[in-house]
Amino acid sequence: MTDQPLSKIISRPRSPSRGRGGWSNQVSGWLLAAPLAAVLLVFLVLPIVMIVIVSFWGATEFSIFPAFQFDNYTFLFGSEVTYRVFLNTIKYALITWIFTLLIGFTVAYFLAFHVRTLNWQIALFLLCTIPFWTSNIIRMISWIPFLGRNGLANSTLLSWGVIDQPLEWLLFSDFSVILAFVHLYTLFMVVPIFNTMMRIDKSLIEAAVDAGASGWQTLWHVIIPLTKPGIMIGTIFVVTLVMGDFITVRFMSGSQSANVGRLISNDIALLQYPSASATAVILLITVLMVIGILLRFVDIRKEL
Amino acid sequence: MTTIPKIRYSRRAVLKTGGAAVAASTLSAPMVWGQATKDITLRQFGTGVSNLNEVAQKVKEDLGFTLEMTALDSDSVTQRAATQPDSFDIADIEYWICKKVWPTGNLQAMDVSKIKRYDQIVGIFKSGKLTPESEIAQGTAPHSVGFVPEPGATSFADEETNWMTLIPTIYNADTLGIRPDLIGRPINNWSELLNPEFRGKASILDISSIGIMDMAMVCESMGEIQYADKGNMTREEIDKTFAIFTEAKQNGQFRAFWKTFDESVNLMASGEVVIQSMWSPAITAVKTRGIPCVYQPLEEGYRSWGGGIGLSNSLSGLELDAAYEYINWYLEGWVGGFLMRQGYYSAVPETSKDHMSENEWGYWFEGKEAVEDITNPFGDVMAAAGETRDGGSFNDRMGAVACWNAVMDENQYMVRKWNEFIAA
Q1: How many CB atoms lie within 10 A of CB B33?
Q2: B40-169+304-353 and B176-300+393-423 have identical folds
Q3: Between chains, do A62 and B254 touch, taking CB under 8 Å as contact?
Q4: Can you tell me whether residue A259 is helix, strand or coil?
Q5: pLDDT, mean of each 10-residue run, chain A (304 residues)
Q6: Rounded Cα distance, A87 and B130, in Å
Q7: Domains in chain A and their CATH numbers?
Q8: Which residues of A touch B254 (CB under 8 A)?
Q9: Per the database entry, which stretches of residues form a coiled coil (chain A) (predicted)?
Q10: Which of A143, A172, B203, B389 sits between 20 and 30 A of B251, alpha carbons compared?
Q11: CATH assignment of B176-300+393-423?
């Protein structure tokens, strides 16, 4: 397959000699890894450690003070709101995942297998990215006048006589939240799936057809198993983005629904950093658990 | 060119008000002071309402120094004042924010004797009374957090002292905004917000410390709860209030909640909402789009708010003098006129009068009928000839304040309840 040379490079055994050459190789290996490790340490590990530490601190109205107490966690787990909000967050993630996967897979499949020439593939793929030229927030907010009570959607449906009353649930509802999520994040599903699909050896599909497989059988037994890594990467993108979001939920639900991100942002706004940190830690653990489960299905390292 | 009169002005101001050390250094080297004034930059931050670039321009013209403005929402303002004391010189904050932030020691008290127009400042900010007969409203009334016993104190004084926390700049009385064309009948009480007639067409603001006050006004108006002090509720009162509103939310009473000014304007202008808590300039913004919108005076009175400027604790020397000069200039009337022509009130209304036409003064302050079109400082028509201001005169409006925006002792509990309400 196309990735053969790459994996060869990665797994090419280093010189096994224990002489000077091996030693300097080891040193240069460490040195090469050092910059990235340092960046990750400073910008990823340290902030997270800080958040974990602060989550045990105490807070007053206007300040936070170092302490080691479990108050924040006790309150978090003791409150029924926490469970409801986490459940809501997972609900958003799950539904968005289903839709982005279906749409993303279809789009990628079309691009990879139905569009014949490479130029068209590139052109159409770039077309998908055009919405990303404007900001996330603008793409989201532009739904509001469209879906509103007197918005385009409702006035069109009214003029066609499909409905007599404007549909209230179009805007400021779970529907509009999920619509915005799907709109915003489908591309994150398209890209990795398209990428893996492009690397599927076409002769495998020919072989399947020669062996008498129907279109669906080819899809199910050949293409989907081979695109699993792409699906998994897309899933990780979408799930983490949706679970960490707060602004989409706020705008599209008209502040009427909450997810974990909003709990955190409310706490921060009110200077309750320790409580925000505790919620963030729990969210982080939840997301890591979800990813851990996902990774059990596919060994991304092997498949790449 | 114009630097020379500026030097004179600065010198005079400093001589009149400043400490001996500053005066001495000014006397020995007046040019240095003049030059230094030009180099001074004061960093001011606050909510959008009074952080206007026009003010900074005028400061540059009149006083010679640079004022950098940063506009933030009230939560971010609180956060910044409490956690980043070195990031600002002047904090333009609301009184309830002051109650929260003052104990951090990030602000310094102001010497009242350096404030030239102190005696003319409206009574609300000094004794708490608009007129000697007025009753003091509930909530964080500005005078209750307006003074400290001595410089460096972190608790407030009960009466007027020589040390002021904030110099009042801007204030107003808030009520519900309605769309008269879509409602079609008179609205006279706060309780109408939860009237099932407006199911799916009501809104309330999602800023807990202000939203809770609007909720309290509604619950009291419905006759469901009698509060001892709406600005300082007990846990039981908080629970009851949220129970009523959670039920309404679950019954679909609210179309949305809003957090920013623009959101409230859009909700109202698009007809998504016909009755909601609103701020005065938002009403105007809806009206300038040609959509009827009324800032409805209600029987129970107004929920009022006020802001002021406070000095960062790290201000000293020339910068501190410049800040005092800025404050004195603020009360001279130009800013007051500028703000009052947008529908706010200024701390020393008499001085603002000189910067407004008789028609404008009559409309905005005295509650008289406009004799010709009223425009705001940006040229938008705010009212046509023949209209009167919703709610009437200054005394009618500020005299009918039922409570002030507040932070309560049970604030943390209330905030948790607010989160539950949003998630419900």
Answers
A1: 20
A2: yes
A3: no
A4: coil
A5: 43 49 82 94 95 90 82 89 92 96 95 91 89 86 89 91 89 94 93 92 91 91 92 93 92 89 85 90 94 84 66
A6: 51
A7: 79-303 (1.10.3720.10)
A8: 254, 256
A9: none
A10: A143
A11: 3.40.190.10
